[in-house]
Amino acid sequence: MHNGPLDILFISPRNESLGPFRPFVPRSIPIGAAVLAGWLMRHGFQAAVADEDIVSIDRAFLEERIGKMAVPRIFGISAMTTNFRRACGIASLIKSVDKNAVVVMGGIHPTVRPEEALAAGGVDFVVRGEGERALLALIRKLKAGAGGYDDIKGLAYRDKTGKPVFNPEEDSVFDLNELPPFPYGLFESGGYDLGFLLTSRGCPFDCIFCSQKLISKRRYRGLRTGTVIEELDRLVNRFGQKRVSFFDDCFTSDRERVFGLCAEIRRRGLHRKCSFAAQTRGDSVDRELLEEMRRSGFDGLMFGFETASEGLMSAIGKNETVGQNAAAARLARELGFTVETTFIFGLPGEKYRDRLEALYMARELADRARFNNAAPYPGTGLYEIAVRERRLDMRGGWEGFSSAGAVTAGVFDGYRVPYCPEGTEPADLEGEVFLANLLFYLDPGNLKKLLNMKGAVSGKWFELPAGALRAPCRWPALFRLALSICLRCAYALARSGESRKFLAEGLFKKRDGKPRDG
């Protein structure tokens, strides 16, 4: 999509925590890097995105790309907590290939810990928070050779003496309607699933485990209805998507906006060509809204249940109840939605029975479910609790902060959960997270729904394409996955008596149907 030399190459580092599950996780576009690339292209710069899930970011790759870049050669690296070390490694590799290259790092982890990024070596600038304004101002100055960065809000860097400088944060709200259409064309040849749409930023709630608010500052904003519909029309009629998932943190935060979008979807006839899914909250839907969404082609919803305990729900700051989630899930299934739920094991104050009740609740109310281990990301309330309780385990490094690590890590990886509540042993928590996922999908009906992607919401996190079992090229990966699951199960049961109890009760007992009161 670009002509002439590149002004900036965005790099999305790989996340190595998926282990044997990686071949079965569909490729997802690095949305943050893509949005920034489109933003800079709108302002006259040539930009591209290199995704390490697609290409190997090694010396040969960088040498080839650097030869096609305009001076100063600028690289933007997006980093989360789990791939921060890899992001720093790429920055150092870039500098070893071209010491004059300019490396800019952004994302959630550098936003919270800019001093750590600057100290790692190889990083010249850190853009904190939403990066559109700061990055554009920085690129303009770098290309003009102007220098003087103290007026760019949200920027961190080292001055001429080597002292780190942290400019004030950006305090004004960025208008999403200034963004150009999403640059899907940059990714057409990468084997990506293009069936997603991000139409808002921010969530007004303050959950103790959420790190996304560190970027958006809990300031909810949505794209105009007309802009969303044009993007959706492009996905359906130009790119031929038969299913689109809305990746908004909470799609139904603005009720009237949803009604307006649904009306336009029907007016354009998009619901006859495509089905839709969205992430939402139990307290932000009702029968009227869900019926309107069903009429407009929506058939999948994902709810962040987190826990089956009302006491824990209150403690984690979700500002909703288990009862509201349960009622919303029942209503959604009654109206024909596929319901996905996510739960977090290892929340502060959680007990064995809370985890078992979560499994029972998922079986009762969900078509698909995921059980994650608590990950105390820096900057969150959960991180502060883990530090205060002296229960933060950094022995696995930042890579160990994967919320799916207890599921995807191999037996020989030495994985340890980064936080475990008082009264629970790490081996017990790790085993119960893994077993909850396994037990949910031991039900043939649930397993069939997992493999059939109709109704999927959450990024289609696991996919076994039709006919894969008949394709010999897929057999080695399937064998490795099956072997890993068997080994993990045996390992969990061998090292944890509580996990053996969890397996027995999960297989043979039923819940009483009532939310836990903590």
Report a brief summary of the structure.
By secondary structure, this protein is an alpha/beta fold. Helix content is 39%, strand content 15%.
Question: Mind describing the biggest β-sheet?
Answer: 7 strands, mixed
Strand order of the largest sheet: 2-1-3-4-5-6-7
The appropriate CATH architecture of the largest domain is Alpha-Beta Horseshoe
CATH topology group of the largest domain: pyruvate-formate lyase- activating enzyme
| Overall structural domain count | 2
How many helices? The count is: 19
Polypeptide structure, described:
The protein is an alpha/beta fold. The protein has two domains: 161 residues, Rossmann fold; 316 residues, pyruvate-formate lyase- activating enzyme (Alpha-Beta Horseshoe), CATH 3.80.30. It has 19 helices and 15 strands. Strands 2-1-3-4-5-6-7 form a seven-stranded mixed sheet, sandwiched between helices. A six-stranded parallel sheet has the order 8-11-12-13-14-15. β12, α10 and β13 form a beta-alpha-beta unit. It is globular. The model has no long low-confidence stretch (mean pLDDT 91).
